[in-house]
Amino acid sequence: MPSSTIPKEALEELQDALGENNASADPGLLQVYTYMNSMFNSLFGLWWVPPVAVTLPSTVEEVQAVLKICRKHGLKAKPHSSCWVVTSLACSPDTVILDLRRMDNLIEINQHDGYAVVEPYCSAGEQQVEIMKLGLNSHVNGAGPNASNLASATSVQGSGGTSQSMSNSERNMLGVELCLPNGEEILHIGSPGTPNAGWFCGDGPGPSLKGMIRGAYGNLGGCGVFTKCGMKCYPWNNEPFHCEGSPPFFDAKPLPNYRLRIGFWPDYDSECDGLYRIGESELVDFCSRFGAGVFEEALSVTNEEYLSMVDSRLYRNTFPKGCWMFSIAAGHPEEAECRLKTLEYIVEDTNGIIIDPEDLGQDANQLSFQTAIRGCYVFKAAFMPTGSWGCFPPMAYETIDNLLKVVQPINDEIKKDLIARNAIEDDYYDNVYMSTDEHSHFGHDESPYSLDLWESKGGELDGMIRGVIDGMKSNSAFFYSPVPTEGDGLITYLKYPAKIYNMLDPDRTMDAFFMLAKGIINDIDDIDDLKNLGETA
Ligand SMILES: Cc1cc2nc3c(=O)[nH]c(=O)nc-3n(C[C@H](O)[C@H](O)[C@H](O)COP(=O)(O)OP(=O)(O)OC[C@H]3O[C@@H](n4cnc5c(N)ncnc54)[C@H](O)[C@@H]3O)c2cc1C
Q: Is residue 531 over pLDDT 50?
């Protein structure tokens, strides 16, 4: 991608507004913000579009100043929080990055109404540590405690094992503060828009804007900069989680009313039956599927150790069809025992096997415990053993039946084939990661694969295309969106976010990822069209 440079006056204005040290166009620094070895790189490569400048705003006013300067000079703006997703880097030329790491406050914990108000760089783990002291807990999505809660709630996906009891991040999004792309206006969504009402609600008065700013997956930095967000908290009846020792396994102190189990089934029919019954009984707090490969990747510390685990086939033989990790966070020991007995009964009654992770050893037990409390290990697994990873589509939000019986077989076939061709790492083809939502019949799935992007053999693109085509053929939702795939359904569907984007950012200040669908956006330049949505779309 050709690199562009920032006009001298624009850089000076940024430095005047933020301080000289907080706005830079140093070529070395720009390279740091151009490289990423993470999810979705398979399509675009390791190096992204270089930004023309990087800024570190520390207040809402400074965020607005950066947006105004970008707008004035025809530059694009891209916000990022903890930067785990490639779309937080520049996606088009002439982009100024707003790295929000100086906005890291946990502003308020409202114990009575059960919410916390956070800034972009307050991590999910940091929020959890503080609220647990007050008898509250919050969902940590599968990206782990290091990621921004605000980003997950407002702008990205947000699923993980505790979605079962504490929902997905976007459903935990309460009041929101959004700096609109023009740099002039601040939009308060929900209760913060009403003076002295607090941050307890993300809806109203009037129609909800939550869906409009997020869509199914999140707008990925395309509609302004979110600077504050109220996050819903849930009761925590245990002692605060305490962890000592050193990485990668630490040493977490057991919690008195907390139980962990791993369950697995011989076939998808039994697995679906078991999961529906577990959900309907509202039994478990953490509910997530892991393939055998995740254990190898998360439990090994060196590549030699990883390879010897693969050779031993310990996990591949124990869970050839993957397993589910369950936790029970009860209010008192009797409740914990009662829920545990019911869980054991359901798994066994549906032909499954249930084990205590302690039986897999101390490291596996710590991995399960810390993953169930705060999503600690999925991301370690992702980067072992090749240093990079991706996920093959469909990547769906679907019913449990559809996930296991329609989507999973598509992923299995693609991966078996690519592994046989040595185009991706043999992480055991069924390394599918799933979680279920709100004790319901619904969940999400991802089929991760590992590869060395420095020595790519093209397998990732092959798998991506096959995943999309086979997903569409089977009418599966893909990339988490329930996309209509027949007639002109898809194009109609894409026009909605385009129209919203046109309304929020008529000057095109934001570096919107879905500008990749540029043709569609340029096609709908009349922002008044929004009011005719029903007729035109
Ligand atoms: C190994 C790994 C595992 C993952 N597992 C999961 C998972 O299980 N579940 C899940 O939901 N996600 C997962 N993710 C995706 C992602 O990391 C998470 O959704 C994460 O919570 C995003 O937070 P972040 O701070 O990293 O966001 P960033 O990467 O900083 O930003 C993500 C997007 O949101 C935009 N954005 C960020 N902050 C703002 C803001 N303040 N205002 C406007 N736009 C903003 C950015 O422009 C970018 O497009 C995973 C990622 C990795 C690398």
A: no
Q: How far is the CA of 511 from the centre of ligand 1 (A)?
A: 16
pLDDT tens-digit series, residues 490-512:
777 777 777 788 888 999 999 98
Cα–Cα distance measured from residue 210 to residue 207, given in angstroms and rounded to the nearest whole number = 9
pLDDT digit string, tens, across residues 361-394: 999 999 999 999 999 888 888 888 888 888 899 9
User: Of the residues 37, 141, 154, which should be mutated to test ligand 1's pocket, given the most ligand atoms within 8 Å of the CB?
Assistant: 141
Residue 312 CA to ligand 1 centre (angstroms) = 35
Q: Which atom of ligand 1 is nearest to the CA of 155?
A: 34
Which residue from 84, 118, 436 has its CB within 8 A of the most atoms of ligand 1, so it is best to mutate? Answer: 84
Residue of 131, 133, 134, 165 whose CA lies nearest to 149? 131
Of the residues 62, 80, 386, which should be mutated to test ligand 1's pocket, given the most ligand atoms within 8 Å of the CB?
Answer: 80
With a cut of 50, say whether residue 157 has pLDDT above it.
Answer: yes
For strands 76-80 and 95-99, give the pairing.
parallel
Q: Which residues line ligand 1 (CB under 6 A)?
A: 38-39, 78-85, 87-88, 100, 120, 141-143, 147-148, 150-152, 155-160, 220-221, 225-226, 378-379, 382
Dihedral over alpha carbons 40, 42, 43, 47 (to 10 degrees) = 90
For the CA of 511, the closest atom of ligand 1 is 47
- Which residue, 453, 357, 471, is CA-closest to 408? 471
pLDDT one-digit tens code per residue, 164-191: 999 999 999 999 999 999 999 999 999 9
Cβ atoms of residues 438 and 449 within 8 Å:
no
Position 255 pLDDT exceeds 60: yes
- CA-proximal residue: ligand 1, atom 18 (nearest): 143
Q: Which sequence spans correspond to the domains of the chain?
A: 8-99, 106-235, 275-473, 489-536
Fold of 106-235: 3.30.465
* Domain 275-473 indexed as CATH 3.40.1010.10: no
Domain 8-99, CATH among 3.40.50.1950, 1.10.600.10, 3.30.43.10, 3.30.70.380: 3.30.43.10
Q: How many CB atoms lie within 10 A of CB 447?
A: 26
pTM of the entire predicted model:
0.93
